[in-house]
């Protein structure tokens, strides 16, 4: 198993340069095809559809989105030509309400979506919406990269946050190709239930499964020493010198769409390492 179809999204050239370059390098290393979506988002307020905005203002918003997508497309094509990766660039302009559908259409058949960390300087709700669409509308795993981070060459130390959930297992399966190349993989179990199956040796069944894939595995059972589980994971990964974290992504419903849950959002906000997350 390896990654053969990758997808990434570019909106602002300078802000997205880091993760695009990382995606191109990863595609080349994996001999994969990279589909680059250059996305322009129309910021048309709801009142515009009820006569609350002038046609000139609406046209200006649409023109801004087209310019944004065109600039992102030109930048992505230039970076693609400079790299040794295979791929193509697709320009799309959409209203904010259609972003989820657009991302889902382009990412649903991918092995992995590669996106920048959606929080931090210069980031906005649009970046969060793109990540949520990839995770919850397609169930495609996502590699989230903090600014300036990459996974080429392959990570050497991987921490897997394991809570026996389907989401965590989906992320683990998605990360198998990378974990096979790692020097060590640590299954991290935080405050396991005292009265449940596998209490005597939490993490052992997962470690056994990973070992069958030729992965060197250790299991660490730790107490939650911070107010948030995400902080415990982040601190432990840093203490272990990890260069990749693998974990499930959790969400809750908001009207007709799923949005990031608090624990997942906190983890992403504070992430200093690349993460593979899946729902």
From TrEMBL:
InterPro entries: Universal_stress_UspA (IPR006015), UspA (IPR006016)
Family note: Belongs to the universal stress protein A family.
SUPFAM superfamilies linked: Adenine nucleotide alpha hydrolases-like (SSF52402)
Source organism: Silicimonas algicola
One Pfam family of this chain: Usp
Coiled-coil intervals: none
Protein name: Universal stress protein family protein
UspA domain span: 156-278
Domain of life of the organism encoding this protein: Bacteria
């Amino acid at each position: 198993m390896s990654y053969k179809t990758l997808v990434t999204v570019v909106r602002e050239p300078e802000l997205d340069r880091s993760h695009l370059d990382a995606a191109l390098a990863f595609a080349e290393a994996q001999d994969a095809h990279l589909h680059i979506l250059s996305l322009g988002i129309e910021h048309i307020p709801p009142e515009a559809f009820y006569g609350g905005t002038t046609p000139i203002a609406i046209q200006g918003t649409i023109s801004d989105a087209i310019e944004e997508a065109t600039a992102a497309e030109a930048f992505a094509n230039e970076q693609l030509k400079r790299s040794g990766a295979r791929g193509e660039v697709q320009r799309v302009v959409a209203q904010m309400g259609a972003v989820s559908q657009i991302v889902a259409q382009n990412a649903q058949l991918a092995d992995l979506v590669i996106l920048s960390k959606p929080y931090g300087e210069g980031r906005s709700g649009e970046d969060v919406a793109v990540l949520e669409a990839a995770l919850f509308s397609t169930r495609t795993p996502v590699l989230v990269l903090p600014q300036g981070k990459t996974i080429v060459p392959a990570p050497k130390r991987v921490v897997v946050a394991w809570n026996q959930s389907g989401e965590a297992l989906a992320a683990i399966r998605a990360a198998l190709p990378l974990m096979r190349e790692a020097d060590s993989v640590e299954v991290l179990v935080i405050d396991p239930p005292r009265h449940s199956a596998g209490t005597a040796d939490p993490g052992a069944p997962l470690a056994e499964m990973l070992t069958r894939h030729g992965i060197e595995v250790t299991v660490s059972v730790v107490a939650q020493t911070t107010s948030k589980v995400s902080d415990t994971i982040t601190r432990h990964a840093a203490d272990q010198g990890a260069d990749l974290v693998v974990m499930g992504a959790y969400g809750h419903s908001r009207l007709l769409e799923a949005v990031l849950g608090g624990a997942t959002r906190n983890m992403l906000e504070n992430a200093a390492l690349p993460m593979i997350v899946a729902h």
